[in-house]
Amino acid sequence: MGSNNTSSPSSNIGGAGSELECLPYGVHHQGEGVCLLVKMGPYRILLDCGIEDISPLQNLEHPIDLVLCSHAHSDHARGLLDLHQAFPTLPIYASEVTTQLLPLNWQEVEAQQFCHALPWRSPIEFHNGLVVQLFPAGHLPGAAAILLTYTNAQRSYKLLYTGDFFLSNSRLVDGLHLEELRGLEPDVLIIEGSYGTSRHPHRRTQENTLAERIERAIASNYSVLLPTPTLGLGQEILMLLRSHHNFTGRDLDIWVDGSVATGCDAYLQLLPYLPASVQNFARHQPLFWDERVRPRMRRLQPNQRPNQEKPCIVLTDNTKDWSQYCQPDTGWLIFLPEKPDYASINHSTTNIETYLLAQHSDGPGITQLIHNLRPQDVIFIHGSPTYLADLTSLEELQNRYHLHTPSAGTLVELRIGEMFLQPPAPPETSYEGELNELGSVVAITLPDAVTTDPRWRNFADTGLVSARWQGEELVLRGLSSRELLNTGDRDSLAWANLNCCGTCKFHRNQRCWNQASPLFGFKVTPEGYCPVFERLNADNPSDSEAE
Ligand SMILES: [Zn+2]
Ligand SMILES: [Zn+2]
């Protein structure tokens, strides 16, 4: 049953007590960062150190055995350097890519490499009976979900910490693979709940909406300023602008400044770890810093201002003073990421708009991951307390799991029962709807409760369905984007009127067959674009046939 059996307050994680406990030092309710001390049997493992002041960690009764960092964002990592300096022999580990991105958190100091790399997926035994495994979590290159397994004479205990996670593929990092986590059967899941129960449009829709709004601003003679964090969102937007059909080939300057530019340099060092599509792109043009291929992407030099004669796009740190780029009411629009915790927007500047290009899973994604793992206990962190409360009040979760939303300093005792049975899979609900024959089409109306099922996302992925008779029954199936590519049924799709690979006459069987194209021979997505695009001849439909 839904419970909040957290005891409080506690200054130290237990001596005797249960085999499994979690004492949070930071749960990122308001931007304070994540830092969790987990006790498994005799071992103490610190998951992330995103708190600014590490003094609460300095006088622990029992020393920490091991530190694991989920990813390089500062809300998970900024205390690590101080921690290392306070305890130079304390072992700190993260994924290979995270170890390379971490130094961006301390650009002002020459920090030596103190974090050691762990490979993906290999179980590593750190101490007798304590095993660590990392799985790619989407969200940011290198971001890991961390599985801890502790085995004593009686049984094994498993705890999975998601870090920040994202189920969808984004431009520069593939999404978390549900399939590879499904069989893990953790007893405890510590999961981020940034977006609470809110529901997001499909990733492609978010990208297209942002691209269209930026294009409209440029067309209306506005320059656009995009303040972003050092890593992640900024590089995603740059990739989007450089590969989206609204912008490819356009005579337009994109300027990048501050630590976002440093973040781009760091990504260039990581090319072999980025998705295959990005590596293909980079084979034909620089990933970043490109004067040749339009739109041009340039680094703003110190004291340099973007040329104001024609509209341009500027990306810079969200911590910078925006007035150094643009004065209010001088033909600039400022686009800010729409985030649940973006409370402190400086509204003294006019012309601010917000957009959604999510880097975390939405509510249906969060519940989908939980139902796939079916743990006994779920600990929600990383999100405003109201958003997390929205999640813990979901009946579908309350009925199946022990739910916790601890604040910092509140010990969570996890009583893993020997007799614990995996919660049963949710019962199948059936939905009643209505049929309407409307002349040339038939409309089927279903209650919107059908969309709360985690499977809806896959079903509705493309917005297209196929219907087939099976005896007396009509079976509906959602079409995946993969199937659409295979059928070659291009006309029904949203991009049918755009200049993109999907409407290019050289696009067959998901590949580019134009020898003049940098994409020749590669698998391309239908919304891709290259300079030698040639529209499929509308008068000669046989061209569109798959070979
Ligand atoms: Zn993050
Ligand atoms: Zn975070």
Features:
547 residues; alpha/beta; eight-stranded mixed beta sheet; seven-stranded mixed beta sheet; 13 helices; globular; disordered N terminus; binds zinc ion
Report on this model:
The structure is a single chain. This protein has 547 residues and is an alpha/beta fold. The chain is 19% helix and 24% strand. The protein has 13 helices and 27 strands. The strands form six sheets. The protein has an eight-stranded mixed β-sheet with strand order 1-21-2-3-4-5-6-7. A seven-stranded mixed β-sheet has the order 8-9-10-11-12-19-20, covered by helices on one side. It has a six-stranded parallel β-sheet with strand order 15-14-16-13-17-18. The chain is globular. The site of one zinc ion (ZN) has 5 residues, from loops.
* Overall pLDDT metric: 86
Principal-axes shape call: globular
The molecules bound to the chains, other than polymers, are: zinc ion
Strand content: 15-25%
Percent of residues in helices = 10-25%
What is the end-to-end distance?
Answer: 56 Å
CA gyration radius, whole angstroms? 25 Å
What is the strand and helix layout of this fold?
Blueprint: E1 6-7, E2 20-27, E3 34-40, E4 43-47, E5 66-68, H1 74-77, H2 80-86, E6 92-95, H3 96-101, E7 116-118, E8 124-127, E9 130-136, E10 144-151, E11 156-161, H4 178-182, E12 188-192, H5 203-219, E13 223-228, H6 233-243, E14 253-256, H7 258-269, H8 276-284, E15 296-299, E16 313-317, E17 332-337, E18 352-355, H9 363-373, E19 377-381, H10 385-392, H11 395-398, E20 402-404, E21 411-414, E22 434-438, E23 441-445, H12 456-459, E24 465-470, E25 473-478, H13 481-487, E26 507-508, E27 511-512
Parallel strand pairs: 4-5, 5-6, 6-7, 11-12, 12-19, 13-16, 13-17, 14-15, 14-16, 17-18, 19-20
Antiparallel strand pairs: 1-21, 2-3, 2-21, 3-4, 8-9, 9-10, 10-11, 22-23, 24-25, 26-27
The structure holds zinc ion (2 copies).
